[in-house]
Protein: Cardiolipin synthase N-terminal domain-containing protein
Amino acid sequence: MFNWNDLWSAMWSFFWIFAFVAYLFALFAVVADLFRDHKLSGWWKAVWVFFLVFVPFLTVLVYLIARGPGMQERTERDSRRAQQAAEEYIRGVADTASPADEITKAKSLMDSGAISAQEFEHLKARALSHGA
Structure:
């Protein structure tokens, strides 16, 4: 027989698990932001950490209300820096050889006997198609 109490108990458990996980995400975001903020002095960081340890839920709520906009700005700034670093890295490791360079390399490989004339023609066609 189906018991509605078991269903409501399970749903209530899922709610509290979700709320706890959401709280942990907020707590870790606040702690990370505290140590990312270079304008805040060490003493103020210590005060925030003290309250995070002894009155965690209220402190997270107050921190998000009082320092939320600055938290968002720091997160966006760090995200932009990470994106720029990734783009620079990709540009640095990407093969930037021109089609002429690729054809010259393929010709030298064919002359040395490493590839056949048919493979050279294939590489040449691919280099010309990528250059266009």
Q: What stands out?
A: Residues 77 and 88 are 16 Å apart (CA to CA). The chain is about 85% helix and 0% strand. Residues 4-94 form one domain.
